[in-house]
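Intended use. Records like the one below are meant for learning the mapping from a protein sequence to its folded structure. Do not use them to infer anything beyond what is encoded.
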Amino acid sequence: MRLIDVTNSYAHLVSQQLANTNAQLVQVYSLGQTTVVFTESPHHQEVLFTNERRNIQDTEINFALKELTNKTIGDVEVLRSKHLAEVTLRSSAVSSN
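Structure written out for the chain above:
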């Protein structure tokens, strides 16, 4: 697995996130057919996974979390819905990286 930075291809999404939220950093990655959006704000980090064809797999979540936050799937609570998964790391979890 490889995370490929495709942030430049999502300039509109990134500019909207930065303009309309308290996000200080927005990065978009490709993980095969899964898109990963990493957002960092003063009080938390969010990692959003989306795939138009199937549900998000635990291996994808675990890999991206390790790469982006040094956490594992066992360290976090994952919110899931169809073709979507989200992880939020609050400020206490963010500062312990």
